[in-house]
Amino acid sequence: MFRPMPSVEGVKRHIEKSLCLVWLTMASSVSSSLPFLCSSSSDPGPRVALITGCSEGGIGHALAKELAGRGYSVIATSRSASSVGDDLRSQSNVEVVDLDVTSSISVSSTVSSILQKYGRIDILINNAGVPCNAPIAEVPHSLVEGTFQTNVFGPISLIRAVAPYMVEARQGKIVNIGSIGGFIAGPWSGIYAASKSALHALTDSLRLELRPFGVQVILVAPGGVVSNFPKAAVSVIQNIRYAIYKSYEQDIRTRAKYSQSSRSIPTPIFARKVIDVVLQKNPPRCFTYGYLSWTYSFLYFMPLWLRDRYFSGKAGLDKPLGIVPHMSGVSTKIT
Ligand SMILES: NC(=O)c1ccc[n+]([C@@H]2O[C@H](COP(=O)([O-])OP(=O)(O)OC[C@H]3O[C@@H](n4cnc5c(N)ncnc54)[C@H](OP(=O)(O)O)[C@@H]3O)[C@@H](O)[C@H]2O)c1
Fold first, then answer.
1. Taking residues 224-248, what's their average pLDDT?
2. What is the pLDDT of residues 157-184, one digit of tens each?
3. Is 227 exposed, middle or buried (CB count within 10 Å of its CB: 0-12, 13-18, 19+)?
4. Known PROSITE patterns for this protein (predicted)?
5. Could you tell me the end-to-end alpha-carbon distance of the chain, in angstroms, rounded to an integer?
6. What percent of the chain is predicted at pLDDT more than 90?
7. Can you list the domains of the chain with their CATH numbers?
8. What's the pTM value of the predicted model, to 2 decimals?
9. Is the dihedral of CA 126, 129, 135, 138 positive or negative?
10. Beta-carbon neighbour count of residue 229 at 10 Å?
11. Contact residues for 13 (Cβ-Cβ < 8 A; gap 6+)
12. In angstroms, what CA-CA distances link 242 with 80, 132, 246, 249, 313?
């Protein structure tokens, strides 16, 4: 049979194709036998999560347990490592580290030693937080400062320490634990709500700023979840001596325990839901769950007069000036 002679161009194309095929075959066999040569496609071990505020009984503790159960290497941090609890400490893929989020020096040294040891941080959860339930006109300045130091400046320090690494790695998730109180604020919770609103705003900006680098930012706004929060809330306000709001002292204390009711969500259930959401390929920008989260979401879209009526009724602030009913029903005159 007659076969036409190949042209010079045809021969060149054939040689190029063959060389290309040989190169691809070599590259794929080299990459599978020497994984360190192609770091982007290799799996350098378990994923690493860094969580703040992991004291036993709280949300951070439950999130750490949930992620450890899903095979993550978890760095569970807390102001005092002893508060983390043996159940978490005894897990082989959990490392417990002391970290006070208000110390930017300790934040940056902790993050760099994690990166040195594990070589990566895949998830950062800014969970540590403190309550502050006191009337704005009488709240001590030190309490205001402490609340913002922990709830706002702390997360900023962690983001500033971790984000450059995630940007370089072109992947990662930053989860900020806000609050439904950051959506709408009622009486006695203005300072706490302001700190959480600030964190929500930071989260919105950060989400857009890090998106081009493949880093996802998620706001988790818990409603009522069973934790140590009310204990902390009552203890931070116990030494305040009110003048204007003396008659409301009991209402203020009651507000401090507001997140805890028989309908508050147990931390393991809350943590499972949150981690399900966070580990999605495309997680939602904001996730809210817990007691009263639906009520607050509804009120968020309502006119201010309706919100005011809801909150002032709950706080005992809807009565005529001068006569203030106690929770017990006894009336006290403001002098
Ligand atoms: N539980 C709720 O209903 C609810 C609702 C809305 C939002 N949240 C938010 O959820 C997060 C977790 O709170 P939680 O309910 O689990 O209360 P929690 O049990 O009191 O946990 C708060 C954690 O933050 C830690 N922390 C406080 N200051 C810190 C600091 N300077 N450095 C490092 N850690 C610090 C606490 O450590 P110590 O044990 O040393 O104090 C504790 O581990 C908070 O951000 C809170 O605002 C909770």
1. 91
2. 999 999 999 999 999 999 999 999 999 9
3. buried
4. ADH_SHORT
5. 117
6. 72
7. 48-326 (3.40.50.720)
8. 0.85
9. negative
10. 24
11. none
12. 32, 15, 5, 8, 21
24 CB contacts (<8 Å, ≥6 apart)?
none
In three-state secondary structure terms, 69 is helix
Q: Is the pLDDT of residue 224 over 60?
A: yes
Pocket residues: Cβ below 6 A from ligand 1: 52-55, 57-60, 78-80, 83, 99-102, 127-130, 150, 177, 179, 222, 224-225, 227-229, 232, 259
* 3-class secondary structure, 173: strand
306-309: Cβ within 8 A, 24+ apart:
307/184, 307/186
User: Which ligand 1 atom is the nearest neighbour of the CA of 151?
Assistant: 45
Whole-angstrom Cα distance, residue 42 to residue 34? Answer: 9
Residue 291 and residue 222 in contact, taking contact as beta carbons nearer than 8 Å: no
| Whether the predicted pLDDT of 24 surpasses 80 | no
Q: Which of 72, 118, 165, 192 is catalytic?
A: 192
- CA–CA separation, 35 and 177 (whole Å): 37
Question: What is the helix, strand, coil percentage profile of the chain, to 5?
Answer: 50, 15, 35
Looking at the DSSP bridge assignments, the partners of residue 94 are 74
Q: Which residues does 160 contact at the CB level (< 8 Å), separation at least 6? A: none
The answer to which of 27-41, 85-99, 108-122 has the lowest mean pLDDT is 27-41
Q: Which atom of ligand 1 is nearest to the CA of 102?
A: 31
Q: Are 196 and 182 in contact (CB under 8 A)?
A: yes
In this structure, the dihedral spanned by the alpha carbons of residues 312, 315, 316 and 322, taken in order and rounded to 10 degrees, is -90
